[in-house]
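#onboarding

Welcome to the new folks! Below is a worked example of what a typical request in this channel looks like: someone posts a single protein sequence, and someone else replies with the predicted structure as tokens. Don't worry about understanding the tokens yet, we'll cover that in week two.

Example request:
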Amino acid sequence: RYPGIRTDLIKNTVAAAIREAIVRNVTENDNHERLFSFLQAFFPALETSDDAFERLLVFEVKMLRFLGYGPNTDTCAVCGAGGDLRFDVENATSLCPSHAEGADVASDTVRKDFKRMLAYDIEKRVPLSFSGNDIRYYSRTLDGWYERFLGYTSKSKTVLYTLLRGVAR
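Example response:
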């Protein structure tokens, strides 16, 4: 199954990172049917994709949401206000101006991009069109969230970063 993944080193490593994240983080109490349904759409999209790393970002952010760790992109985590929000990257949450004081907040583009990833319909297979710098930033941010919230570091992503450095030369 999925010869386009098996024969492509980058896509195969992305698939390995996904398998590793599932094995290490999904418990017997999680909604396996929902995850399986998502994966049934995800792997065909990865196979035909020209942007495997964007697909991995979408998977990772949706997986964090599936596991109950956000990110919260819609309302202030303190008071529930919507509208004018800042994004606290360290805590993966939005804050209103009243509660953002002292927090290390990112631009609103970061919050909106994570919101786009959460809303992304994997079956439409439309690229998110992130720049290389955006992909690196979001990937490292997600790595930090997985480490902070789940105590998990992906070995497959370490391999993927090494492969991508070799491709960029």
